[in-house]
User: Fold these one by one.
Assistant:
Number 1:
Amino acid sequence: MSEAATGLIDTRVRVAVDTPQHSGLTGPLDYLSERALAPGSLVRVPLGKRELLGIVWPGESEQDTDAALLRPILGILDGLPPLSANWCALVEFAAQYYQRTVGELALSVLPPQLRELEPSQLQLRLKRVAKWAAEQGQRSQEESESKPELSEAQAAVLAELDTLLQAPETPPPVLLYGVTGSGKTEVYLRAAEHALAAGKQVLVLVPEINLTPQLEARFAARFAGVATVSLHSGLTPAQRLRNWLAAHLGEARLVLGTRLAVFASLPQLGLVVVDEEHDPSYKQQDGARYSARDLAVYRARLEKVPVILGSATPSLESWQRAEEGKYKRLALPQRIGGGALPRVRLFDMKTLPVKKGVMTALTTPLLEALRRRLERGEQSLVFLNRRGYAPVLHCGECNWKSDCPHCSAWRVFHKGDRTLRCHHCGFTERVPSACPSCGNMDIAPLGRGTERLEEQLAEALPGARVARIDADSTKNKGELEAQLAAVHAGEVDILVGTQMITKGHDFRRITFVAAVNPDGALFSSDFRAPERLFALLMQAAGRAGRDAEQAARSEMWVQTWHPEHALYKSLTTHDYEAFAAQQLAERESAGLPPYAHLALVRAEARSVEAAKAFLDAAAAWAKQLPDARQGVLIYPPVPMAVARVANVERMQMLVESSSRGALQRLLWQWLPELGALKREHRGLMRWAVDVDPLAI
């Protein structure tokens, strides 16, 4: 970093820095520089007693501030090209829309190691990136895997995408609606190939980290001579810095990543792909609560490049925009090879004989179906979206249950390490030998999680090779890859798991999928729960019969107490369009998204009274604003679904409007007042605003 020379310093520059929320500093700050600096340049600046990394921000500085009061820039990151004007525009839009400061968001999406590097260290990193890129370029393109023959539908979709890629005007977003196994990934690969051939960079977003390595392997196999990097939270700080620098310098031509990668600096961006665009993982749940899918669409519009949103079960927001003609919908209605989608069978749990005690998840007919697949040497998948051995331990004598002393939730029984673990605050204790309340020695698990299901399957089907994939069984590095490799190699007969195994995985040998106990989401207070359940079950069904030769005998069982429910009726015919039409009609009549726009104001405090007092005061202030009297509705505060976590009480207040503009105007005026209110309400710990919330 070159130090600013002493002498005449008279050029004003605006610099975005990460200022604390309570400081009241919301925009870029003015500094003095010895020379003009290009917008997007990275600099070191003083703020109070600290020295911070900042970004020279586009726009005019405040000329009415006395230059004598301004502090000089301490240094400039030499050798690093400035961030582009479009990158700055993306961050500025995201900060305004999601109600954060520009500096906070801009600095949070850069690699943390950039803040720590000395000039000599930065030069060393840049040399390493150049060396790495040279090595990538030496790999022969002849090593690339051969390309499969395209289906008619794939060829038609690609022809449309090519037209958009070459169009002089800004192309509309493309919603690629393709059934599971229809070859969406091959479309991404071919579209990426065409963009790369045009000298462009490609950004591919996936919802979760565990999908990044396998997609990276697909792209690396296809593009052997193309520098490819990944960006996600599973990387070490050094890996993240190297990959970010490779993309920023234009050395990496392909960037794959999770939601954070939407902010990757790509100076020659030519194509954006969002795989499984419906997935809730694209919404950040803390800090700047942005939607990477929505920002990918905005970024593509800024850069005037195509964006592909791919899904077998698109989000209702994207589907509605396609219905209105704002998005271009392209369809892949058939599986590759002409294979049939798995037959869906609803098993009515009410037909089973009534027995005393809790009904078992592993019904006799289900075990028989699994046994038949075993005899044929086929693989099965049993899906239960609840990890651990059992959701709760229970005493039959005094009705004690294993609640968490710090949260309004149960602690889950994990049999493997004999612990009771809270999945909200992490509080863990050894399983008591007797009931802590009455001393009864006979305390028993109530309900079941994947750990218990795995054990029961092994007992009921001796000789079957049962494996479990969930957040507990794959928490150590390399475990997920090893387990997936075992499934692909045919070393597993029955795979048990949570939603982790329903997304994106191409299991060629699985012919049977069973969903155990999915009914809970049907009657949730969250209006999005049916949409999420339908997507999850469609994705789970899509893991079966991906090999065209086995597709005809592939099957999915759903064990349900409500087989007559409209959601299950649409599932049996794989009719997403009917489900979407029914859900959109319900949402329109109820005035819910996408026909309304929402924000949540959340408050966390040591007591319920403190959280409620803050939200009540905030609502009273907001209701005086003109926008609140013209179409913005502020609901009374209510506790969150899990009201207490780690001894912190949590409440939320819903704000609703039919006009996105009116909602944004109200929030923009409201936020400075919320900061002032926090100082008045001493019991309040934190507050946050969530625009377009996914979980209510």
Number 2:
Amino acid sequence: MRNRNRLLSSSCLLGVLLTTACEAPSPPTPAAPPAAPPVAEAPRTDTPATDAPATDTPTTPPTGDVGNTGSALTVSNCRVLTTSRASASGDDGAGSVAANALDDNLSTRWSGPGKGAWLTLDLGSSQSLAGAAIAWHQGDQRQNHFTLSTSEDGTTFSQAYAADSALTTAAQTYRFTGTRKARYLRVTVNGNTVNDWASISEARVCGEDTTTPTPPTTDSGPALPRLPYLQSVGTTSALVAFRTSVSCTPFVRYGEGSDISRTATATAAGWQHAVKLSGLLPGKTYSYVIEACGSVTGVRRFQTATGPETTRVHFTAMGDFGTGGSLQSQVLKLLGQPSRAGEFLLTLGDNAYSSGTDAEFQSNMFKPMAALLREVPLFPSPGNHEYVTNKGQPYLDNFYLPANNPSKSERYYSFDWGPVHFVSLDSNCPFGYTLSDCSLSLEKTWLAQDLAATTRPWKIVFFHHPIWSSGEHGSSTAMRREFAPLFEQYGVDLVLTGHDHNYERSKPMKGDAVAASGTRGIPYLVVGSGGATLRTFPGSQPSWTAYRNNTHVGYLDVAVDGGTLTTKFIDSGGTVRDTLTLTKTVPAAVPQTSNVSALSKDTTPQGPTYDPTRQPAFLGQKPVPPADTAESVADAPEPAHGFAREQQ
């Protein structure tokens, strides 16, 4: 089991949006040194020779430069607390004193020399502090390493926040995990990416805001290197995951309908985040906005999972899609339409070609699917291409999935949504891999217990390697031998897989053959048509195949309505190519109980192995080219699956 850092918490804070005018680098003004002269701020080594060096001395606005005409700080959606005075550890001796941080003039500043220089704001009395807003001098040219601390007596300070500023001239808001009672707020600056000076144009303290903020409709500020995606959405909670280009402690404003008056804040600074939204209600639509390191995302919406009393659900599924290429884009163009997306998306493996690296996840999955994943919760399963890199570790590091198996591993898990119990299996680890958190015996034992525990009337299992397929690989006899008997024993209704790059639906199967007339069988669907290059069928259509298609990319649409389950294979042009209808007798509504499917209740995902104090490697990674050819999505030899092609 991995020991992995969680960046989750919630509080009741509101966002602060601040804007400032741009400030250009200013020429130095000679000044007499103080008694203990500070070391002058060094010029930027990357500044062209035609530019004046950046120094921390008073500036003289150049003629016609609108950005240095004494523009004021504009604050919106924030209850700014009145500051009685400001003090500092020192200044540059040339007029850049602490009071300049409160004069509402962006062309002046406080500048203090040396790492550990601090600016303290005195409110005059103890109040509830929710955070601070800072406009950094030349903030678009250097990142400041800083901490925020609070104090009641002005002597003993307690750290409340630590981060690096974003590269932006806009004032940035930094929110505490929770409100704090304090009279003093101190900003301590431990140098910046250019030199060891502290330079702040304006600083404010914010209290709790009781106003209702207006949701922004578009993204603003520095672009997030990874836009938000929804993970482990349940009936009462959800995770909003994303990445930032600098280390900070972000927060998410959210609420039911169009309201965003509630706030959830990450508990630690870092670059990779999964902020938990709690206190949600089943089957409701929620709006959310992220504020992180100077970035603000436009409002997006999602639906929480419905409870067992709900008899309907609509979702989509597809596999073998993570190419970043042209066929994937055709499917996403259709699937991205609100009327088609469904309540959530299942993926059937091969989420990131060709080797499941972090860079491939970014370029071939999260970037092309960004618009969809901001509003549609994602429940994935791992494919063989994910296992090429470190036995699927990047897959685990990119998703935050229910950790509800005994190993607390996200390789396989289950969840409930409305009338359906879903199980995501890992069809890689039981065969040919040695893993402490996943083995054949562990997964089979857990599966039997999980399926036996649920009382939801419908059961759907999804994973990568097909039990029945006439495609290039054929049927995985190992998966059939080990898992099909459990599916049959515990009444699984539908099995969804990928791996072969085509669409295929079997007739209802039992054991190693088509179910006899009058007996119950399970239809097995291969939906490996999500965007990878399609492959030819090596032989004629077997007698156990009801329908197959290797000429159209597309996805599976699934709707459950009471005792009827309907699947539709929809190609990228919107044409329904295949339909399956299953019927059964189910109760009109399942009453709420406290012990329904205990193994699939809302759980806290483990998240990635991640050090929030060390800059992650993904910040320097370059985009990878699309996996848009047959060669780029080719499979390495598969261990121990015993693939077979069966005609009868």
